[in-house]
Amino acid sequence: MKAFASINAAYDRVFTPGQLSIGVVVPIENYETGSLPSMHRHLERVRLIEALGYQALWLRDVPLHVPSFGDAGQTYDPFAYLGYLAGQTHQIALGIASIALPLHHPVHVAKAAATIDQLSGGRLILGVASGDRFQEYPALGLDYEQRGAQFRAAFDYLRRAAESFPNLRDNSFGRLDGTVDVLPKPMGPRLPLLITGHSRQTLEWNAEHGDGWLYYPRNLHEQAQQIRQWRSAVEQFHDHDKPFLQPLYIDLAAADDALPQPIHLGFRLGLHRLVEYFEHLRAIGVNHVALNLRFNTGAVEATLEHLATHLLPQFHHPLQPDVST
Prior knowledge:
The protein has ten helices and twelve strands. By secondary structure, it is of the alpha/beta class.
């Protein structure tokens, strides 16, 4: 089994070949009946998932509230909020899934992301995407149909920004001529960039340039096929492997043996069935699952604790309590 590249502390800890780790999507609350979360007890719950041993927290980039889309994410600016959470946590990986690159100038993304990576001791994992909310593009004076090309340009800019006094020409976001630098630099050799979906690119382009693939939940047969295609594409360009991760919405039933019932991008099911499902995901090559409790009908804290006791220990080693604080 091929190793993954070493990029920063979070990437190296969260992703292990042949293993599956578990994170949680913020906001950690039920807001099934509306698109706006309350963010009630948000910091307390972030601290709780770290204390319980979940490997990562995940924020989303939603620049504008589009009611027809049905979900405004955590509502806070992802970089400002993640900087705040970096100062309130100690070990947990800080993930963004994902920054819509065409909607931001990449110099600001590079500077904000590297700042969080530095201040947190290498705990940033940056998902990137082309964006899928049409209404955001005209609001920012951008062409929705050009988002694929703009994604590539922004991605290239981010990669070059990690270099010392970079040279970058023929880029639609601007030119760097080696006389100016982008500071700070990431903790590792580069920012870990995980590509979401296809982002209007070929699978081969994503396998060559990205540091991992974040794809949507599919039935096990289809997901296994996607992962095989991903790893085959990675082999064309690299002598190391790259992780595959996915989100999963769950509504944890009170009865541990409750059979799965489909919900949006996930299941309502009992703990035992969830463990079995995760075993299947690990077997087909999923390296990380980001749990989303938006539709969970049970008490949030009790659900997190139940999963931490009975699910986390059976998979990638959970974080250990930070005894230094």
